[in-house]
Specification:
Elements (H helix, E strand, L loop, with lengths): L2 H4 L1 E5 L3 H13 L3 E5 L2 H11 L3 E4 L8 H9 L6 E6 L10 H4 L2 E4 L4 H8 L4
Parallel strand pairs: 1-2, 1-3, 3-4, 4-5
Helix pairs in contact: 3-4
């Protein structure tokens, strides 16, 4: 099985329809995907699913994406974390560079997103 097929990706966004559509695209592209609608759900999914990559919306209903990224970074398992946000690049928090492996602005080009996710660690 090739690496792309085994890549586990967690999408965290309170826009359920958008997440489900993106997850379906990623699954059709050979990635194993799960969705979470808020930070607490994402932490539970991460514990159960052990994703290799997480796409995090910054504006979540229960905690912001920065707090979620901090909690994900505290896990023992290394995970690549990408911000997937409608916030412009200049709106980034000063901790963004240390918390995220990349910043992808919405709407994201699905093929470009696949390229980012398929990059080796």
């Amino acid at each position: 099985m090739n690496e792309a097929r085994s890549l586990r990706v967690l999408l965290v966004d309170d826009n359920e329809m958008g997440s489900e559509l993106l997850a379906e695209f990623l699954a059709l592209s050979g990635l194993e995907t799960r969705c979470a609608i808020n930070g607490e759900d994402a932490l539970a999914q991460a514990a159960a699913f052990d994703p290799q990559a997480v796409l995090v919306d910054i504006l979540l209903p229960d905690m912001d994406g920065y707090e979620l990224a901090r909690k994900l970074r505290a896990r023992a398992t290394p995970t690549r974390i990408y911000a997937l946000s409608g916030l412009a690049r200049h709106a980034r928090h000063e901790d963004a560079a240390s918390l995220f492996d990349g910043w992808i602005e919405k709407p994201a080009d699905p093929d470009a997103l696949l390229t980012v996710l398929r990059q080796p660690d």
